[in-house]
Amino acid sequence: RYIRNSVKIVTDAYDGSITFYVVDPNDPVILTLQKIYPELFKCLCDMPPAIRAQLRYPEDLFRIQAAMYGRYHVTDPSVFYTGTDNWQIASEILTQGSAAQQIEPYYVITRLPDATTPEFVLFVPMTPVGRNNMVGWLAGRSDGEHYGELRVLRFATDRTIFGPLQVEARIDQDPDIKTQLALLSQGGTTLFHGNLLVIPVGSSFIYVEPIFIQASAASIPELRRVVLATQTKVVMRNTFPDALAALIQGAPPVVTTPPPTTTPPTNVTPEIQALVKSISDHYSKAQAALRNNDFATYGAELDAMSKDLAKLRDLTGVTLP
Description:
Elements: E1 7-11, E2 18-22, H1 28-36, E3 41-43, H2 49-52, H3 59-72, H4 77-82, E4 87-89, E5 91-92, E6 101-102, E7 106-110, E8 119-128, E9 136-141, E10 150-154, H5 164-173, H6 175-184, E11 189-193, E12 197-201, E13 204-215, E14 222-229, E15 234-237, H7 240-248, H8 270-291, H9 295-316
Parallel strand pairs: 2-3
Antiparallel strand pairs: 1-2, 4-8, 5-6, 7-8, 8-9, 9-10, 11-13, 12-13, 13-14, 14-15
Helix pairs in contact: 7-8, 8-9
């Protein structure tokens, strides 16, 4: 079998013309085809910038690479033979009582280690085979000259990083959250856990999981709660900004029905409130853009949200644990 991310094909929607841009000039198959059809292929540098900015790391290729890397990252022959250091794509549980399933790789904007600016990457966390703690992650890069590169971060063995299933367990075991979820699932409604996102923030992670309910007579799930977690804290609130404020500043317990008027905690300044609202707005716009397949706007909104989060950290002096 042979698979490479070698060529991007662009079709002009007005006249139907097709252009082939070579992404991987070292691919032997493409080198051969270029000799056969010298006028067919163009250099990636000739791609219009507006189109070039939309290129994304291929999800199917990334899944295959992640699965293969889980075994072939091992360089010690004896360890490779015993399989004691094999990795796998982390798993999650989407519906209460259902079996765990592998996380689907997802796109995020984050600043990779040693990078100076945030970038758009395809991301997936990795766990050891047979265990649930996170041992590393893979990221497929999409921006600029780094397009097509894979980055791998392996955590130190003396540090335990929670994997998605462990965070799910912490969510289910939290007394306040457990009570709220039990109330939400009454009356013939079905409770769904959305995809749990593991987002790198500085040298740590923040875990984000939406909670949905769906009535038996309804066809569309409804977002009812948002859970945010770090290595030491789990919070659930009615909205993303409330959860973010609780995670960073501390906030009142979850309420089923929000009060008609909200008085912010005394330690939350107007500037912090404005940043939290801005983060929430960017998050909502990003989700709307994603539903409309508007990836340019999606990336821009996530980038703006990431910058606001950095400002919030600087303003509060709080580093995510």
